[in-house]
Amino acid sequence: MVPLALGRDDAVTVTEPPGAPARRAAKLTRNRDFLLLWTGSGLSALGARATSIGYTLLVYWSTGSATAASLVTFAALLPNLVAQLPAGALVDRWNRRTTMLVCTAGRILGVGSVGAVVLLDAVWLPHLMVVAFVEATLGICYTLAERAAVCAVVPRDQLGGALAANESRANAASILGQPTGTVLYSVARFAPFLFATVVHLMSLVTLLFVRRDLQAPRSSDGEGSGLIAQIREGVAFIWGKLYLRRALCLFAASNILFQILSLGLVVLVKDRDGTPATVGVLLAVNSVFGMAGAMTSNAFLRRWGIRRMMIGIHLAWAVLMPLLVVAPGLVAVSVLLALINYGAGIGNVAGVLYLLRTTPDELRGRAGSIFTLLSSGANSIGALLAGFLLDAVRIEVALAVVGATMVVIAAFAVLAFGTRTAAQAERAEADAERAAAEQVAAERADAERAAAERADAELAATPAGRDPRG
């Protein structure tokens, strides 16, 4: 739930070869293949969001057991721990189009089976857990393949705009998906799963109409490497970032708390005689504030940098989360959760753009899988703990535990990012980045001068370029 934020101190400059000519390309809005890929992936994300809340509502409203609901959520999040690394390496090997088609077809069958058993009133918890696990695993492979496929259909000089469009798509799916799932569930228990089946089918059709080859270029250097060696290479790339390492550890801990808050919101609404539609409204508000945080993240990064931003976000959470215990009603709870999600959203765009701009194409699947594993893999553990905690104690006690734990995590954030050593490391990495950028600029200028000299020499060698006086 909590995205990873990265700043200028961890940046790596990826440039075109010196002297490479810039070329004009059609706008993204006229790029047929990109639009089809963007639309299909957006539909897929929308369906996944609708079923994520659909599973929770179906189990909890049917059984009244937070533990049962958390087991399905745990199954859906477990692939973040066990499937990310092999999926990243395999996606770098497999054909992107085939991977996306197979994954989408598998999701259609899985979600469709849930809708069918709900219609037949034959819901079985182990079946839901298996489908949730398989659907999430296929979703991981699909996302990693789609991320690489975007780079195959969009010119390099338009990649930034394409990534921004994809981020907007993800935010829109988050804002619309879960409220849509809750509203559909209020109409009929099978409706969220029927909706997801239909939109996955539409996603499959759009992918069939993409003309361009979606296979990402492969490096010949790694063709003979084994799966473990390729995974190790991706790990080395991600783990080579100082502030990324520290941020991942802190966010992994806070992600556990966010899972407790997520299920706790459902429990809180039900305990106060709310409805599934109320849950949907509160989730929509949280998503809107998360999107607002993402839209303003670059301003915070420019002003604070990663070190101060990490400290500020965790201190803000350490203040806001304990206040949930004394919040007088659902409106106050909604305001506090919205502010918490605004802080989480601040780092979202920065993290995604950092990863895709700095990762070589042949490493993109592996780097993306490791990034997700380390930043979000703790969600599965948090989902499992959430059910047991909320069934064992009252919601107010659970929220108090969350608040106290967040205070401890914030203290670690201050120790990790507030020391003089951390400040010196930040300045040193920023200086190294500026030096690297200056070197690249100098090499490009030298290449442009050499090209201009060659052009002048070629012109002088032609009859029209010789001096007529002889």
Automatic annotation (TrEMBL):
TM region(s), chain numbering: 34-52, 99-120, 190-210, 247-269, 281-301, 313-333, 339-356, 368-389, 395-417
Domain annotation Major facilitator superfamily (MFS) profile: ranges: 33-422
Membrane topology label: Multi-pass membrane protein
GO molecular function term, any single one: transmembrane transporter activity
Entry annotated with the keyword Cell membrane: yes
SUPFAM superfamilies, A to Z: MFS general substrate transporter
One CC-aspect GO term: plasma membrane
Residue ranges of coiled coil: 420-450
Lineage of source species: Bacteria, Bacillati, Actinomycetota, Actinomycetes, Micromonosporales
Keywords: Cell membrane, Coiled coil, Membrane, Transmembrane, Transmembrane helix
UniProt-recorded name of the protein: MFS transporter
Predominant place of localization: membrane
Subcellular localization(s) per the UniProt record: Cell membrane
Provenance organism: Micromonospora profundi
